[in-house]
Amino acid sequence: MPTTQTSTAETPIAETPTTEISGATASGRPAAGGRAERIRRLLSDALAPETLTVRDESHRHVGHGGWREGGETHYEVIVVSKAFESLGRVERHRRINALLAPEFTAGLHALALTALTPEEAGKRAP
Length: 126
Description:
Blueprint: E1 3-6, E2 9-12, H1 35-47, E3 51-56, E4 74-80, H2 89-99, H3 101-105, E5 110-116, H4 118-124
Parallel strand pairs: 1-3, 4-5
Antiparallel strand pairs: 1-2, 3-4
């Protein structure tokens, strides 16, 4: 069953409604909800991941470029999806960045991305 993860807790993606957030409002501003949740929903809707981890790592970048008070500027995102099977690493990252364009416009500064196929993820498992 597909899972989504915040910090270390896993929640099935199926439990997350996918119709509540479109990613951006008509004004181009991100839709309501915390940034991690919006990222999770955008990627879940577009990529149907088997696993998805979204971690706010802003606290590790205090004082660095792009950091803002309140965080939500730097994230680690790990996506395992069959949607990546025909794509190389650069194209996978481009696709994720394009999906998250409204978030970058609204203050998301950096992503640490890992984008794998299920087969690749299986080879990395301990």
